[in-house]
Specification:
mainly alpha, about 35% helix, globular
Length: about 140
Amino acid sequence: MKFQRAVLLPDDPTNGDENAYAKRIASYSKGFPHNDLGGVDGAAFSALLGATTSDKPNDFENIPMSEADQAKRRKLVNPQSAFAFDYARADSGHLEMPPPPAFGSAEQAGEMVGNYLVGAASCAMPGASRASGRLAHRALA
C-alpha cells in the first residue's frame, strides 16, 4: 500500500466533448430529464457534475431524474465506483486509460456503424445462438 501512495497519478485526458457541446449532447444523460428535442436538462447534468466533486455521497441521491416518483425511480448504478480504492492490487486511479473517441470524429462514427450492424445482424437472426452472433461480429470487424 505504501508503494501505491508513492505512485504519481497519470494524466486524465478527455476527448473534449464536454467543452465542445454546451448542451451536453455527447455526455452521459441516461435517466435524466430531457426536453422535447432530446436535450438533457442542464440543472440535472450540473447536479451530476457537482456530486462528483462534492465528497458528499448523498449529493448523488439529489440528482434530478426523469421519474419523479421515488418508488419507481431507477437509481444511477454505482455512480461512486470511481471513488473506490482497491487494497489488493494497483488502484484503478493509477491505471491509465485513453479517452473515448470524440463525438464528432470519424472513429466514433465507425464505432456506431459497427454497433448498429451487429444489432441489425442479431435482429435478422431471431433465435440465433451466441456463436452465430460472434460469427457476425467477426465478419463485421
